[in-house]
Write a structure and sequence with these properties.
By secondary structure, the chain is mainly alpha-helical. About 65% of the residues lie in helices and about 0% in strands. It has one domain: PgpA-like (YutG-like, Orthogonal Bundle), CATH 1.10.3760.10. It contains 7 helices and no strands. The chain is globular, with a radius of gyration of 24 Å.
Length: about 210
């Protein structure tokens, strides 16, 4: 008889493990990226190279502020930081010629049949912002603005995925807040008019 996966009983073998990070954090992903020559300013400049005004993000100044806020939120997740670090390590191994089953010349030529870099970039963007992040990753990957054009085969996709995912969240949250603000203003205006009509009715009745 066929059985659904949901019917299979499972035991939580990690139920006694801590649900929070433990110990002192000694390495920041932003510091590691900076050691690799990739600064936050470079990330912002690359993101803003493809910036398009949207409701809630009417100016580049507003967009930059929102991008930095979303970047901070994204990088608060250690899982994302580990994905980025995986790309850093792959790049280092590629430069040293010690990647498994890939020659240094193949790495340097960024051969099209090697898609692990693209998969990693897409995974990062989707982890941050779902399908919207993947759409933004493709946009940045095709045009490679700013620092993206200067990075190696792995890191251009890793950073493209990071910028794409964060950029998608920037637009999504900016537009959502603008929409909420607009609805609130309309509601307040409607209630104000209703109150004025009520006051006027009382005066006429008197």
């Amino acid at each position: 008889m066929a059985m659904k996966l949901s019917d299979i009983e499972s035991e939580d073998l990690k139920k006694d493990q801590s649900k929070e990070l433990e110990g002192e954090i000694t390495h920041s992903i932003l510091e590691i990226l900076e050691d690799e020559g990739i600064t936050v300013d470079m990330l912002v400049d690359s993101a803003m190279a493809l910036y398009a005004p949207h409701p809630g993000l009417e100016t580049r100044e507003i967009a930059e502020k929102r991008f930095l806020e979303e970047l901070d939120i994204a990088l608060s997740d250690p899982n994302l930081c580990l994905l980025i670090y995986a790309g850093i390590l792959l790049e280092r191994e590629g430069e040293a010629g010690t990647l498994p089953d890939i020659s240094k010349s193949s790495y340097e030529k960024d051969l099209t049949f090697i898609i692990a870099d693209e998969v990693l970039g897409m995974s990062i963007s989707k982890y941050i912002s779902g399908d919207k992040g993947m759409f933004e990753f493709v946009r940045f990957d095709k045009q490679k603005p700013g620092i993206l054009s200067k990075l190696g085969p792995f890191m251009d996709d890793v950073i493209g995925g990071l910028i794409g995912g964060v950029s998608a969240n920037m637009y999504t949250r900016g537009m959502a807040e603008a929409s909420n603000s607009s609805r609130k203003k309309k509601k307040d205006s409607k209630e104000k008019r209703k109150g004025s009509d009520s006051d006027l009715g009382g005066v006429i009745a008197g």
